[in-house]
């Protein structure tokens, strides 16, 4: 069955354009005209990706994005007229996968949807994740760095492995401390500085194995893996 795209926007013309282009690409679509409807449709239909506006009635896009991130990792592309750097930073901080500014070229939106779905589906199905010199074997709880001198296995704690595997599923994406906390410490009361401590230990182990610059800090937002470091 083709992927289901939830289009959340209160501008009817925008919805019609996105709906037409998505369907032409073979996607199924469903539309929400306000934030609460978007949240409800996401809960009932479990879409594969959400195209989300910020300025919507009832619940705005930031509130919706936060709710979707608390529920899981459904890919979300913000499609909005807000074009300031602070708005983009806010989207990344909450957990958006991409950010497209209106007015947009519909074909560009389609291309971004295809790219993110390929990436997220591939990561979900993979038993072995590879990011640059890093290899993560999910079933065996093993991680290693490939260097010119050979393969160097990482001696990680379970928590460090979980954080690394979580980030390796979507390279280049910035993960906030709260996202890492919710994904790797479910139902646990963990402080943000605890995340910083685990990530710091993990970074030192990666660098000792030869992967300098692989795990980076994005100031004021969180952490990401840089495949080309």
Task: Describe the protein in words.
- It comes from Brevundimonas mediterranea.
- The modification 4-aspartylphosphate is found at residue 53.
- Pfam families: Response_reg, Trans_reg_C.
- Keywords: DNA-binding, Phosphoprotein.
- With 229 residues, the protein is an alpha/beta fold.
- The mean pLDDT is 89.
- It is elongated.
- The strands form 3 sheets. A 5-stranded parallel sheet has the order 2-1-3-4-5, with helices on both faces. The protein has a 4-stranded antiparallel sheet with strand order 6-7-8-9, with helices on one face.
- It is 44% helix and 22% strand.
For the record, the CATH architecture of the largest domain stands as 3-Layer(aba) Sandwich
In one word, what is the shape?
Answer: elongated
Largest sheet report: 5 strands, parallel
Q: What is the number of helices?
A: 8
Structural class: alpha/beta
What is the CA-CA span between the terminal residues? 37 Å
Unreliable residue runs = none
Question: For this structure, what is the CATH homologous superfamily of the largest domain?
Answer: Response regulator
Counted beta strands: 12
Mean pLDDT: 89
CATH class of the largest domain equals: Alpha Beta
Helix content percent band? 40-55%
Pfam families: Response_reg, Trans_reg_C
DNA-binding region: 126-227
GO molecular function: phosphorelay response regulator activity; transcription cis-regulatory region binding
Keywords: DNA-binding, Phosphoprotein
């Amino acid at each position: 069955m083709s992927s289901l795209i939830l289009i959340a926007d209160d501008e009817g013309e925008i919805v019609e354009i996105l709906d037409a282009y998505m369907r032409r690409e073979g996607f199924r679509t469903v539309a929400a005209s306000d934030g609460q409807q978007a949240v409800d449709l996401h809960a009932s239909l479990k879409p594969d990706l959400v195209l989300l506006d910020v300025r919507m009635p009832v619940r705005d896009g930031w509130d919706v994005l936060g709710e979707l991130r608390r529920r899981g990792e459904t890919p979300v592309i913000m499609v909005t007229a807000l074009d300031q750097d602070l708005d983009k930073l806010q989207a990344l901080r909450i957990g958006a996968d991409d950010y497209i500014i209106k007015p947009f070229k519909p074909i560009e939106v389609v291309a971004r949807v295809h790219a993110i779905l390929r990436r997220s589906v591939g990561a979900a199905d993979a038993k072995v994740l590879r990011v640059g010199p890093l290899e993560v074997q999910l079933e065996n709880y093993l991680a290693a760095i490939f260097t010119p001198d050979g393969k160097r296995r990482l001696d990680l704690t379970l928590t460090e492995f979980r954080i690394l595997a979580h980030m390796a599923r979507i390279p280049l994406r910035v993960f906030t401390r709260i996202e890492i906390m919710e994904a790797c410490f479910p139902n646990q009361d963990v402080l943000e500085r605890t995340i910083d401590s685990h990530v710091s230990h993990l970074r030192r182990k990666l660098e000792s194995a030869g992967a300098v610059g692989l795990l980076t800090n994005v100031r004021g937002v969180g952490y990401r893996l840089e495949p080309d470091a």
